[in-house]
Design goal:
This is Beta-lactamase domain-containing protein. The chain is of the alpha/beta class. It is built from 10 helices and 14 strands.
């Protein structure tokens, strides 16, 4: 069982999907101290893997499951998981609660956006309403919750001790075999630059020693990487805005992607990714660019 020990009491459980390029991309964070918590659970397809991993390290119960947001790759397996841990409170943004108690719209939206990827992730089962907790009102076990909208309007980050779980509020972080990394914005439509920057400011103001990403891994180069990511968002907006001034054709997204790969030093490790991981990244890269394009078009109105 591949469980990565990251820091004292903290492990990352990789939830590799049966999709080319989707290894070391989705994971669940396991915190074991006086209390035991999970942060994000991945999609339904890998809940059996997650349960086996928890059993392998002796986890028989959970004190809380913390969801950074309810996108299918982070929360799609929550209904299946609580059937195994039936008394565990599930913490998320208040606006996510109705979608977890009745995930029909969430599932339809996931299929519309992700297509076959969503189908591979598996359908979303409902969570009993009695288990769902509003993150803004959750103060148990010393956990601190921070509203960090941007990647999603219902995004929440969590502080447990000195570990800050930022989901996708700080972008997507990929460590590469040569020791370098890629840091890519996670800015799908509808994206609002100012909102995301305020959320990064929120994270930077939180004292912490370790920054834990939803995709994928952790860094102690914090808050430096948050500051760098904040600047990256502003630079992406500037690069895409300039491209839009003379390019409104059907290939705008592809042109922006080529330009960003050339100009953004935080993407310099792109060529170190294997071809299947690059293909995965292209999908989400395009969606992040579309978020910026939509934002910039709205700003022009």
């Amino acid at each position: 069982m591949n469980i990565i020990e990251i820091a004292p009491g903290l492990s990352l459980i990789p939830l590799d999907q049966d999709i080319p390029g989707f290894g070391s991309f989705i994971g669940s964070w396991l915190y074991k101290g006086e209390k035991t918590f999970l942060v994000d659970v991945g999609p339904a397809a890998t809940v059996p893997l997650l349960i086996r991993a928890l059993e392998s390290v002796g986890v028989k119960s959970l004190d809380a499951i913390l969801l950074t947001h309810i996108h299918i790759d982070h929360a799609g397996g929550i209904g299946d998981l609580v059937s195994r841990f039936p008394d565990t409170p599930v913490v998320c943004h208040n606006s996510g609660i109705p979608h977890l108690s009745d995930p029909s719209r969430l599932w339809k939206g996931s299929v519309k956006t992700l297509g076959d990827v969503a189908r591979s992730y598996g359908p979303i089962r409902a969570v009993p309403g009695a288990l769902l907790r509003d993150a803004a009102q959750f103060h148990d076990h010393g956990i601190k919750c921070f509203m960090t909208p941007g990647h999603a309007p219902h995004h929440v980050s969590y502080l447990i001790g000195s570990y800050l779980f930022a989901g996708e509020a700080g972008g997507c972080y990929s460590e590469l075999p040569d020791g370098t990394f890629c840091l890519r914005p996670a800015t799908p439509p509808r994206f609002f630059l100012e909102t995301s920057i305020l959320s990064i400011d929120t994270l930077m103001a939180v004292p912490h020693d370790l920054l834990c990403y939803g995709h994928f891994g952790a860094t102690r180069k914090t808050p430096q990487l948050l500051k760098i990511h904040k600047r990256q968002l502003v630079e992406w907006a500037d690069i895409i805005r300039r491209q839009m001034q003379f390019d409104q054709g059907q290939n705008l997204v592809e042109h922006c992607m080529k330009l960003l790969l050339r100009k953004d030093p935080l993407l310099a490790g792109w060529n170190e990714m294997d071809p299947q991981a690059q293909e995965r990244e292209r999908f989400f890269f395009r969606n992040s660019i579309r978020g910026f394009i939509g934002y910039l078009k709205e700003k022009e109105k």
